[in-house]
């Protein structure tokens, strides 16, 4: 069994104000996407300007934060927020959903595409390879917070997480599994795949399929949310239910991209 490294969730203190590692991880993800996006935009024939990348990241930040929060409220804990509507805005108390954030970002992509004269998939194909870095950073933030831990296990690398709900039991460090699969591994695959010209929709499809596959895999090791538990038996979780249609959509996008390549 490994020792959980107790890290103060608060990275910096400014008098009564504090900056948490979880929030900083979001900034790391956006900064990485912005930097990598500007690098690719600078390539000859990219079809993008650095200013467009700046605008897209700004739009994306808004979509991620609003979508992730609303997604968590709707998908994971709606009764609680119906009883306490003011808590919807208390992001610092936790509760962000990847699938909600994805929907928020897709809405921003559509608006950005209309504004710039690009197609929706031209936008999503461009930014998709950089998203896994943000996913990796976010999961590291979850690990530092000691939240979203895994199921009880006796594997040699199991950890005892702080807090009453985690209990005195060693558990899978599922946040690190997700940081690795959804983050580092998916980033390597996406960056390699997108480095060469691909049919429109293919990059977006690979991201959707890759993320869904990684998330569903890790869900077998991650403790389901306490307020939901297992759904439809003793193995299906909300994360699986939300990821399955995303994976099917990704597979269809890949198939259609190579079967019927789009010009734009």
From TrEMBL:
This is Phosphatidylglycerol--prolipoprotein diacylglyceryl transferase. HAMAP family: Lgt (MF_01147). Pathway: Protein modification; lipoprotein biosynthesis (diacylglyceryl transfer). Belongs to the Lgt family. It holds the Pfam family LGT. GO terms for biological process: lipoprotein biosynthetic process. Catalyzes the transfer of the diacylglyceryl group from phosphatidylglycerol to the sulfhydryl group of the N-terminal cysteine of a prolipoprotein, the first step in the formation of mature lipoproteins.
